[in-house]
Write a structure and sequence with these properties.
Blueprint: E1 5-8, H1 16-25, E2 34-38, H2 43-52, E3 56-59, H3 64-97, E4 101-106, E5 112-115, H4 117-123, H5 127-130, H6 143-146, E6 159-168, E7 174-186, E8 189-198, H7 200-219, H8 225-240, E9 244-250, E10 256-262, H9 279-285, H10 290-295, E11 300-302, E12 308-310, H11 313-317, H12 324-335, E13 340-347, E14 353-361, H13 369-407, E15 412-417, E16 422-425, H14 428-433, H15 437-440, H16 454-465, E17 472-477, E18 483-494, E19 500-508, H17 510-564, H18 568-611, E20 617-619, H19 621-631, H20 633-638, E21 641-645, E22 651-653, H21 655-671, E23 679-687, E24 691-698, H22 728-739, E25 742-748, E26 752-760, H23 774-778
Parallel strand pairs: 1-2, 2-3, 21-23
Antiparallel strand pairs: 4-5, 4-8, 6-7, 7-8, 9-10, 9-14, 11-12, 12-13, 13-14, 15-16, 15-19, 17-18, 18-19, 20-22, 23-24, 24-26, 25-26
Helix pairs in contact: 7-8, 7-13, 8-13, 17-18, 18-22, 21-22
Length: 779
């Protein structure tokens, strides 16, 4: 079938107008657009063509491009018309198949112009009946809220949403709805498209959630058991708008007695009602109030859960039940004015009935199946809540004992989640590290771990999550920023949610670790001393041994000569030769002995530093350096060295050890001066919050980069012509270690060197962290 027809007017047989008329009368071909093409250009002919249904009229002769553009335009219009038809059909299907009730309503009058099948099902009217009503007639709202949509100042595309309104069905049932409406033009009328959704289930669900949330809040409170149950009953009563409510619970004698009630008259008592475990027992014994509801009229209900209700208590009272207790019970309910009653069983965790939730209302037809379903869910929540309350109290008692145990040990007990966050930490963290345990909860453990050790603890925790138990050692930063060595030993645990956690104990091992570090340092130092000493002592000892053996040989030869020689002059000459030779040997032996003495003196000086007790005190460093320079004044003047002494910051340290340290550094600066330029030594300091750095800067011969990591080694000399024995800087390093300070050096050959010594500004005193007060720890 063609998409478009080009039709001439002047043709043999039927002319173009006659053909066009027949096309438009044909139901199959009538929608095909026709363009008339003719040499006839009179206006009357064009009007006739358009009246017969032509979409365009092209006069011959014409331009080819004009014809093509017009054809393209009308073909596009054909596609648009098809799309409109498809959309109309789609919208009709969407309207009819929508899960909500859809109405097309005339604005102002509220007359229903269209309604879908869902609207018919929801309200109980046929579609034809709905079209005879106004939207207001479906409302159960008071008059002032009935016309909220029809009287609103709606504008095109202005969407109105009303989250809650009450409508009524054909049978009079009132139910909650949510309304959405939008105004638009339809058949030259102002209408609005209204979607009405039944939200009964949502309202009941929200109400149930609200009740359960409030019950949960009560469980989390610290009020006594009876008070919290009364509060829960009040919540249920208020949320469902019940007139009276009570709960009966099975006591230790297995009888059902009143536990708590609200708003019953003083004369009304909750009489004994047997609770049987099943429908069959209830039906067979005829001793249960449920019996009537199981077997009688449809105005009552008995569910599989065990609940029942009646909305016509008067009819219920006239029932023929011979059990006297039940008659008394029924009469009490009726005499109190109640017309509707519901009883919902309460089960324990073994699915045994242990109680009844009773609800009464003064009006008829209050209860329905939806309300009963909600009450049964509340009953489950209530039974679980009562059970949970007992468990919580037991858990709290157990936690208290556990916490008392944990809080009274010197170590830190910690629980960490799989994402490395602190879930629990004992109070001892404050005593040992200065943190309040509350500020660490839900924070990452890495925030208090020394940066270099984070990988260690991460690896350990990953092993623990794989059930590989492997204690690890790392450093924790205390609140003042100081790292302390700790040991963690733990294992994986699982919570009720099956989420793995790591639980364990952190022990302080700072003292042990410092001793290990000290031992390692001393071992390394000892190895170095043994190696260097054995190497440096070997050379002079070899000299002494070699020359001593030579002297021994000469003396033996001399003795043999004396024994055989009789000429005194020859003996004298021989003796002089021996004397000169031995003197030459002594010139080698004595320096070797001197070198051995120097080496031994260096070792003794080094060992003495290790035995010195450190006494920290505040030092006036300006006076301190002036005293050192006075002692060295002769050397300084003799070598024409300029001293630059800036204002120096004070510190806390051991003055004797510092004197030796800086005396050695200044002496080195004098010793290794550059002879080709005027020498200077500059002494100054830089201060931070906790430390002072002292600079000993010179313009001497400098040190090669390859020697910078060796200069603090025992007996090392950076230049062979040095007059020293390589002990001075080794002593400096030993003192630095003893004081817990640090030293660095910048140096460049033929430019000079700068030694930087960093010392704490405040006193550093070792304390026992397990017994120290918080104030001591902060200091």
């Amino acid at each position: 079938m063609p998409n478009l027809i080009l039709l001439d007017i002047l043709m043999p047989g039927l002319n173009g107008f006659e053909v066009l008329s027949k096309l438009k009368q044909n139901p199959v071909l009538c929608n095909i657009p026709v363009i008339l093409v003719s040499a006839v250009y009179e206006i009357e002919e064009r009007i006739k063509g358009f009246n017969l249904g032509a979409v365009d009229y092209i006069v011959k002769p014409f331009l080819e491009s004009d014809l093509i553009s017009r054809v393209k335009l009308h073909l596009e219009l054909v596609n648009i018309r098809k799309e409109i038809i498809i959309n109309e059909q789609f919208n009709i299907q969407l309207f009819e198949l929508h899960i909500d009730s859809i109405f097309l309503v005339e604005n102002g009058t509220g007359k229903i112009l269209k309604a879908n099948i869902q609207a018919s099902k929801l309200f109980g009217y046929t579609v034809e009946e709905l079209l005879q009503l106004t939207i207001i007639e479906l409302s159960a709202e008071p008059e002032k809220t009935q016309k909220v949509i029809s009287t609103s100042h709606l504008t095109n595309d202005n969407l109105i949403n009303i989250p809650l309104r009450w409508h009524k069905k054909k049978n009079g049932t009132i139910f909650p709805v949510e309304i959405s409406a939008r105004l638009f033009e339809w058949n030259n009328k102002k209408v609005y498209f209204s979607s009405i959704k039944d939200i009964t289930e949502r309202i009941n669900t929200e109400k149930l959630k609200n009740i359960q949330y409030k019950i949960s809040e009560q469980l989390n409170s610290d009020i006594n058991n009876n008070s919290y149950i009364k509060n829960i009953l009040q919540i249920i009563k208020d949320e469902i708008n019940i007139d009276s409510i009570a709960i009966k619970y099975k006591n230790f004698t297995k009888n059902i007695t009143l536990l708590e009630s609200l708003d019953y008259d003083n004369d009304f008592s909750f009489s004994e009602i047997p609770i049987l475990n099943s429908y069959q027992n209830c039906n067979q014994n005829n001793k249960c109030i449920c019996d009537y509801l199981i077997n009688k009229s449809n105005s009552k209900l008995f569910t599989e859960f065990g609940s029942f209700y009646t909305n016509d208590l008067e009819v219920f009272l006239n029932s023929n039940i011979i059990n006297e207790e039940q008659i008394v019970y029924k009469n009490e309910c009726y005499n109190a004015g109640y017309k509707s009653i519901a009883l919902v069983p309460i089960f324990n965790n073994k699915n045994e009935k242990v109680g009844i939730l009773q609800l009464n209302h003064l009006t008829e037809n209050f209860f329905n199946s939806e309300i009963l379903i909600m009450l049964e869910a509340i009953s489950k929540s209530l039974s679980l809540s009562m059970l949970k309350k007992e468990f919580i109290e037991q858990i709290k008692e157990s936690e208290k004992k556990y916490k008392d145990l944990v809080e009274n040990i010197n170590d830190i007990f910690i629980t960490i989640t799989s994402d490395f966050k602190i879930n629990y930490i004992s109070n001892s963290i404050e005593k040992l590290f200065g943190y309040n345990y509350k500020e660490l909860i839900d924070k990452s453990l890495s925030e208090i771990i020394y940066n270099e050790d984070i990988e260690i603890i991460n690896s350990n925790f990953n092993d623990l999550l794989k059930n590989k138990i492997n204690p690890c050692e790392f450093r924790i930063i205390n609140k003042s920023g100081q790292p302390f060595w700790c040991r963690f030993s733990g294992n994986q645990i699982f919570t009720s949610s099956d989420v793995p956690k790591i639980s364990g104990i952190i022990s302080i091992i700072e003292e042990r670790k410092q001793k290990e570090i000290e031992i390692n340092y001393l071992n390394n130092e000892l190895e170095q001393i043994i190696y260097v000493t054995s190497h440096d002592l070997r050379s002079p000892l070899v000299n002494i041994q070699g020359f001593s053996q030579e002297i021994k040989k000469i003396l033996i030869t001399h003795q043999q000569q004396v024994n055989i020689e009789t000429d005194i002059e020859k003996l004298k000459n021989h003796f002089n030769k021996i004397h000169n030779t031995i003197n030459d040997f002594y010139n080698y032996i004595f320096p070797s002995i001197t070198k051995i003495n120097v080496l031994i003196d260096g070792l003794l000086s080094l060992s003495r530093i290790g035995r010195v007790d450190v006494k920290f005190e505040k030092i006036d460093m300006n006076t301190f350096f002036k005293n050192i320079l006075i002692v060295m004044e002769y050397k300084i003047k003799q070598n024409n060295i300029k001293i630059i002494l800036n204002n120096i910051s004070d510190c806390y340290s051991d003055e004797r050890l510092l004197n030796q340290l800086f005396s050695n550094l200044i002496d080195n600066a004098i010793k290794y001066r550059a002879n080709n330029r005027e020498s200077f030594i500059k002494i100054y300091s830089e201060e931070s919050d906790k430390t002072v750095t002292y600079f000993i800067e010179d313009n001497g011969i400098g040190i090669n980069k390859s020697d910078l990591d060796k200069i603090f080694s025992l007996y090392f000399k950076s230049i062979k012509l040095s007059s020293g024995e390589g002990v001075g800087l080794a002593i400096v390093k030993k003192i630095i270690h003893k004081l817990g300070s640090s030293i660095n050096i910048d140096s460049e050959p033929d430019v000079g060197s700068c030694f930087k010594v960093t010392i704490k500004k405040i006193a550093c005193v070792k304390i026992n962290r397990s017994t120290a007060s918080n104030e001591e720890l902060k200091n």
